[in-house]
Amino acid sequence: MTTSNTGDATGPTGEATHDTGDATGHPTGTPGDPRPAADTAVRAELARLRDSIDNIDAAVVHMLAERFKCTQQVGHLKAAHQLPPADPSREAQQIARLRRLAENAKLDPAFAEKLLNFIIAEVIRHHESIADGTGQPTGATGE
After folding, report:
1. What's the pTM?
2. H-state helical runs in the chain
3. DSSP assignment of 72-93
């Protein structure tokens, strides 16, 4: 099969075909297309799943933003009352809790713990910045 830049193609029997193609410009599922019609269905399912992933990623970002708004308030409260930026006891409780949640959700608990440790480190950095009066760390969006 030969393909031009416009998606016009000549099939194996010599008939001309025209297809607008997929997102990459490759013709899909047309007469004379050597790829099986199932390929079009697979690409459609892949696009559907990727749309869902994109929506979930957006929700995760918004949830993290809300979480950090709350932890910024905690940082200001701690600073106002001369409490330490870190609370190892609370952190250990949260890690154990998140590991249980991860197990119940069929998510690798070690991954969930790594993620929470990353978030906790960022929260502590924010709290330290608030406590020492320098305000928010570089890149923080505020309340």
Report:
1. 0.65
2. 37-80, 88-104, 109-131
3. HHHHHHHHHTT--S--HHHHHH
Q: Which two tokens stand for residue 109?
A: 């608990």
* Total residue length of the chain: 143
pLDDT above 50: residue 34: yes
Q: Strand, helix or coil at 31?
A: coil
Q: Is the CB of residue 102 less than 8 Å from the CB of residue 108?
A: yes
- Split at pLDDT 50, 70, 90, the class of 140 is very low
Residue 32 token pair = 């004379």
Q: What one-character DSSP code corresponds to residue 12?
A: T
- Max Cα–Cα distance, the chain, nearest Å: 82
Side chain identity at residue 21, one-letter code: G
Half-sphere exposure of 93 (CA within 13 A, CB side): 4
Provide the token pair at 17: 């075909």
* Packed helices 109-131 and 88-104: angle between N→C axes, nearest 10 degrees: 150
Q: How far apart are CA 80 and CA 6, in angstroms?
A: 66
Side chain identity at residue 63, one-letter code: M
Q: Contact 5/20 with Cβ under 8 angstroms?
A: no
3 state SS of 44:
helix
